[in-house]
Specification:
The protein contains 2 helices and no strands. With 43 residues, the chain is mainly α. The longest helix is centred in the middle third of the chain and has 12 residues.
Length: 43
């Protein structure tokens, strides 16, 4: 789905991904044990 981000889009993505609140949200999501099968992506 698309290619790598470049320029301002890459800078924006990097800034968002570095936010402590987002990093905490991602960590909490990864630690979640309850799963809803229809939302799982099996790769």
């Amino acid at each position: 789905m698309g290619g790598p981000l470049q320029g301002a889009a890459r800078d924006y993505a990097d800034a968002i991904l570095a936010l402590p609140a987002l990093r905490a949200w991602v960590a909490d999501a990864l630690a979640e044990t309850e799963r809803i099968e229809m939302f799982e992506q099996n790769e």
